Amino acid sequence: MIKVIKISLAVIVVNSLLVGANIHQKYDIKSAKILYKISGSGDIMGVVTKATGEKSVVFDDFGAKELIEEKRENSSSIGGDNKVDTLHTITYRDKSLVSIADMEKKRITYTQNIAIDMMGASTENTAQQIGKNMMLQMGGQKIGTDTILGYKCDVWSMMGTKQCLYKGIVLKIETDIMGIKSSEVATKITFDITTDKSTFALPNFPIYDIEGNKIDKSELLKDAKEASKERVHTMPKNLLSQMKAKLLSQESTMVFAKKCLRSANSLKEANICNQKANRMSGESEEDFEEWDKATKKEILGFIDQGLDQIECMKKAKNMGEAQYCIPQE
């Protein structure tokens, strides 16, 4: 129920929509080119595997435009039989539009990642911040620092993976999952590079959608422009409606919590309120660990703040008005 009570934190979502232009910012550096060495090996039930390769990442506009080229060779051996697979792809991302060129099959797969645009509805306002928030939610921890090519980076550990981040850029990533170890380590970095259209050019291959249907290039450009124009005009309004609906759906729970907790004079009584509020909201928050006058005052204060913001949101007709529902710190 704590999430419901602290609804003032959720309302910050509206504020992030107002600065949605930053949502595609992945890095704290405007442009760069990074080269990586890829390696890996493992032995699972007698199957010996090995991976080698290289990767290059070029980006501009703080990561809104990014080109990733990867060449990898994967080999496996079992009972004296050897098999080698090669992979060569070039991926270009322009905000939410993604094109992946398969250099072996000589074709490009085109898709539009709406989820990237929808990240504007997060409590964070850049892709980098959202990524860190997701790592924390999934149990990730910052466990120390390292130095790669002279740059000090923060080491994060999560689910068998360790990665070292410098201004949002991964300088080193290591995984150890089920006996398979792999790593990508930066071998050269150049910051503040100059880019142009040729920097992000893809081969002149036929284009397909993710379902395997061939796409006409002229129609693709037209559809991309129309889709971009449509998102600009409709997304803020739609997201505001979704956010208002989400907040308003919690109102009855907030009213109940305020009345119930105001009468709670013991930890047991407070936790009974908590459990009932959880059932109403669909949350599964843990019980209170303590309930004294200070805790009671703080929680009731959160509830009052949340209800005030809900009343404000009811009246908001656009994003400009919604901004005034957010307390300025």
Give your account of this protein's structure:
With 329 residues, this protein is of the alpha+beta class. It folds into 2 domains: 27-220, Lipoprotein localisation LolA/LolB/LppX (outer membrane lipoprotein receptor (LolB), chain A), CATH 2.50.20; 243-323, no CATH class. The protein is 36% helix and 35% strand. The chain has helices at 2-5, 7-10, 12-18, 114-118, 127-137, 217-248, 251-263, 267-281, 293-315, 319-323, and strands at 32-44, 47-60, 65-78, 81-94, 97-102, 107-112, 141-148, 151-158, 161-166, 169-177, 180-191, 207-208, 214-215. The chain has a 13-stranded mixed sheet with strand order 7-8-9-10-11-1-2-3-4-5-6-12-13. A hairpin with a 2-residue loop joins strand 7 (141-148) and strand 8. The protein is extended and about 70 Å long. 21% of the residues are buried. The model is unreliable at 1-21, 118-124 and 230-237 (pLDDT under 50).
